[in-house]
Amino acid sequence: MHRTRRCAVGLIPAKQRALILRPITSLDRLFLNAETMYASKMSRELVGLSELRSPANQCRGALVNKINTKKIISDYSGRITAKRASFDRLVAHVMGTPTELSDLNFLCENYLASIYVEFECLVSDLFHGYINNSNKTYLSNIESKIKNSISNKYSPWHATHTNFSGPKHIASAQLSNLLDPTSWNVTFKDVAAMQVRAKEWLAPTHEKAFSALSASDVALVDAAHAIRNCIAHNSASSRKVMNNKVRALVTGPTCTNSGLEIGTNNINSIGKYLRVATPGGMRIGVYSDRLKAIGASL
Question: Which residues contact 215 (CB under 8 A, 6 or more apart)?
Answer without folding.
Answer: 251, 252, 255
